[in-house]
Amino acid sequence: MHVLVVGGGGREHAIVWALSKSPKVTKLSCAPGNAGIAALAQCVPVKATDVEGMVAWARENAVDFVMVAPDDPLALGMVDALEAAGIPAFGPRANAAVIEASKAFSKDLMAKYHIPTARYQTFTELEAALAYVREQGAPIVVKADGLALGKGVIVAQSVEEAEEAVRAMMADKKFGEAGAKVVIEECMTGPEVTVLAFCDGKHLVPMPASQDHKRAFDGNQGPNTGGMGSIAPVACYTPDLAQVCMETIFQPTVDAMAAEGRPFQGVLYFGLMLTPQGPKVVEYNSRFGDPECQSVLSLLESDLMDILLACRNGTLDQTEIRWKAGAACCLVLASGGYPSSYRKGLPITGLEEAGKTAVVFHAGTARNDSGELVTGGGRVLGVTAVGGNLDEAIRGAYASAEHIHFEGMQFRTDIGRAF
């Protein structure tokens, strides 16, 4: 099969890496890809959000299957367009991807189907939102309704901070139209856990629980980022908790989407808070998380292509999915200054040595005119190690990362130990 993966970050590198192991996959392409992905797949100069261009390229190049990985093209209906052109695709259609594309939709879905989550209100008027914040007090959570590159959520510790977040979203248009509507909700407490699940519209199979480290600095301090590292599995997510989540959150969500005429096929991301009152949903995403994907797929023993086909064909309940024992840790190496301003084009060294003991997934890399590997984004690399237990995996990731250098390189020193 000629398989095309849409996207160009660390998540997509991990997906391409996993698919490259499948005997069913005879040719791999990735659009737009990156310098690391280029070692495993043909990189195609088509933007991930170019729906028409992606369909045309897939048709012209005899693509047999497309895996759409990022949130934006899913929300834009890329899967719908591919399927309409007769090209099988993995990922939710636009009417199901709305579970991530609109936080107001997802909160209303949970309320309607009694899926546990934080209390909330949705606002389209600035003054009404500000009045609600003052009435509720802090801490309180302010969320842009639409897609905001994973940065549209502010956990405000004071009323003033919450008011500032509301104004930035609604008045200053910090996230464009994504912030024209905001969701304001109670601030839940407890450990956060991500559970990704393969879904075929009716059935779902959860993957090992993972934990993302969103804040830029050690101790979960500093601004939110796209993710500075991840681990899988998570010790506090016990088998008993997993059963509770399956019965009260996971299957009810898949059933709710089907009942709404929006069957979800793809990877459904459950962001959970393990509160004193039990597990509750923080957010849904309609795709693999990044960098959770890197840790989780490192533990997958089964053929990823078989799983993608089963999700698309509605046969997930007939598909065995096996996972390695042990644990995985992904350490993100970021550009100096990230998530604010940062330089690009800085030479990267040490990857060959690091690759002897870990898998180095490329997130923001490129080749300069001389063919030299250089930085090309905020999150540059995801050094991912597997061990017999979490301590081994963490030590492996950090030891491997010691070989890698680029000017201004920054990373957290507490991945897997911050919660």
TrEMBL record:
Its EC number is 6.3.4.13. Its cofactor is Mg(2+); Mn(2+). One of its GO terms (molecular function) is phosphoribosylamine-glycine ligase activity. The keyword DNA damage does not apply. Pathway: Purine metabolism; IMP biosynthesis via de novo pathway; N(1)-(5-phospho-D-ribosyl)glycinamide from 5-phospho-alpha-D-ribose 1-diphosphate: step 2/2. It is an enzyme of class 6 (ligase). Keywords: ATP-binding, Ligase, Nucleotide-binding, Purine biosynthesis. Residues 107-313 form the ATP-grasp domain. It catalyses: 5-phospho-beta-D-ribosylamine + glycine + ATP = N(1)-(5-phospho-beta-D-ribosyl)glycinamide + ADP + phosphate + H(+). InterPro entries: ATP-grasp, ATP_grasp_subdomain_1, PreATP-grasp_dom_sf, PRibGlycinamid_synth_ATP-grasp, PRibGlycinamide_synth, PRibGlycinamide_synth_C-dom, PRibGlycinamide_synth_C_sf, PRibGlycinamide_synth_CS. NCBIfam families: purD. Belongs to the GARS family. This is Phosphoribosylamine--glycine ligase.
